[in-house]
Amino acid sequence: MITDENRDQIGKETFSDYYIVNREGEIIDSLENEVTQEEKSMGVPENRIIKQINLENFMPSSIVEFEGKEENGVTISPELLTINGSVNILTKTNGEG
So where are the chain's domains? Predict the structure, then answer.
């Protein structure tokens, strides 16, 4: 549960899109727009790296990019907690690599 005490421990999705199905069964996107199942199923979620996925039975719900931090010549990845079905991309500093 997110509270004011732990809110600062939660990361930010920098390149992602997600969908929520509310109690009425409506599908709401990350911009709070209602979408149809057909619109939701239209290809790879917006991102700057992955343009095509060649898996018949899998399309990620979101694609999230996480930037590592360089310390003493080593790239340290952040601790991750993401939603099921999302694809996570780890990059070096400045989104390289």
Answer: 7-95
